[in-house]
Amino acid sequence: SIGEPGTQLTLRTFHIGGIASRDAAQNKIKTKHTGKVVFTGVETVIQEDGIRVVIARSGEITIVDAAGSRRAHFFIPYGAILLVDDQEQVDEDQELFEWNPYNIPIIAVHKGYIKLEDVVPGETLREQLDETTGMRQQVITENRGSKVLSPRILIVDKKGKNLGEEYNLPTGAHLLVTEYVDQEQTHRTPAPLGHLMARIPRSFGRTRDITGGLPRVAELFEARRPKDPAVVGEIDGVVKIEGIIRRSRRLVVHDDDGSEHEYLVPQGRHLSIRDGDRVQAGEPLSEGSIDPHDILKIQGVNAVQEYLVNQIQEVYRMQGVSINDKHVEVIVRQMLQKVKVDDPGDTEFLKGEAVDKRKFQEENERVINESADPATNQPLLLGITKASLSTESFISAAAFQETTRVLTEAAIQGKKDMLL
């Protein structure tokens, strides 16, 4: 039953003064340990003022002590400013990097000149008031006309020739650069290395109601598919951006064996990868919430369990509520108690049937002992309501919801509950 751990979550309501709260996101990361800094997959560009900006999307910093043990581990977000060097000795409380948690930056990784493509005032570009700063901003908007426009920034040389680097501008991006070309085409808007050309506001940075976290918790516990899920890569490989098909951007991931997977990302969505990046299976290719069903399908049961616990705990931690992981873990375990039968073999199951894990293992052991073919399965992720009502124990189900219906069906079927 999920009654006891569910009570732990319900009792710890969000007690916060005031009617609204703004997420106090950390913008400077400090180490709590003394040791040596080790970079993994960190790529940077150096701005004209000497500041080092991270342009890798999967960079990591590890703090290693004198004995060679890992003491701390940090993921470095794209666009962060590095404050330490690789192999540098750091002290406790020293800052490692800083970043803007409320915006996703779009940064020039090559030096050149600005050229705006398909950025048309009134169609794909409008001036809007920024509620956060109170200033008017140039914002990319969705193109609803018959002509397909794909707003992007190109980095060109002085004569206007494309240097092969382009940056797609998703819907909602704030454009921070303008294109200027004089009549003789001898002067253009420069794009220095590491220059911030646009920014994409993160939605969680906005002020919201005190109960803003509760719908997210309900979405996770009910295993609902997010409204705008991120497109997730299913294989390891190198990603290529290959044009636009039916108002969607076509991405192809090529693995080392020569096979490829194709993905279509809606045109107005921000890509979280660059052309030529190496991606891992389960890594998001676009912005958005990751569908836990995708994690289960691609990375397996352990990965989805870890994801759900971390995401649920994140909501409570943001509200200053501390809950032991075990209460959440008990619920997540119940959400994954069923498996779907792929091939029934010589068992009593039917193809596509949802069966309890323990019952499935017992039936498989029986047919193996008789030298027959066992069944195969794939794990199922059920929301807590469905998981609770489909449990083997009818008393547990009746104690949760729809008591009359559950007890009536149990009586008609002559069920027994061993209370184990």
Topology:
Layout lengths: L2 H9 L8 E2 L6 E3 L4 E6 L3 E3 L5 E3 L4 E6 L5 E7 L4 E2 L6 E2 L4 E4 L4 E5 L4 E6 L7 E5 L6 E5 L11 E5 L5 E7 L5 E2 L14 E2 L4 E6 L6 E2 L4 H8 L15 E9 L2 E7 L5 E7 L11 E2 L12 H8 L1 H18 L6 H11 L2 E6 L10 E3 H13 L6 E4 L4 H6 L4 H5 L4 H11 L7
Antiparallel strand pairs: 1-20, 2-10, 3-6, 3-9, 4-5, 6-7, 8-10, 11-19, 12-15, 12-18, 13-14, 14-17, 15-16, 17-19, 21-22, 21-24, 22-23, 25-26, 25-27
Helix pairs in contact: 1-5, 2-4, 3-4, 4-5
Describe this structure as you would to a colleague.
- With 420 residues, the protein is an alpha+beta fold.
- It is built from nine helices and 27 strands.
- It has helices at residues 3-11, 214-221, 292-299, 301-318, 325-335, 357-369, 384-389, 394-398, 403-413; strands at 20-21, 28-30, 35-40, 44-46, 52-54, 59-64, 70-76, 81-82, 89-90, 95-98, 103-107, 112-117, 125-129, 136-140, 152-156, 162-168, 174-175, 190-191, 196-201, 208-209, 237-245, 248-254, 260-266, 278-279, 338-343, 354-356, 376-379.
- The protein has a five-stranded antiparallel beta sheet with strand order 11-19-17-14-13, with no helix packed on it. Strands 7-6-3-9 form a four-stranded antiparallel beta sheet, with no helix packed on it. It has a four-stranded antiparallel beta sheet with strand order 16-15-12-18, with no helix packed on it.
- A hairpin with a 2-residue loop joins strand 21 and strand 22.
- Helix 1 packs across helix 5, helix 2 (214-221) runs antiparallel to helix 4 (301-318) and helix 3 (292-299) packs antiparallel against helix 4.
- The radius of gyration is 26 Å and the shape is globular.
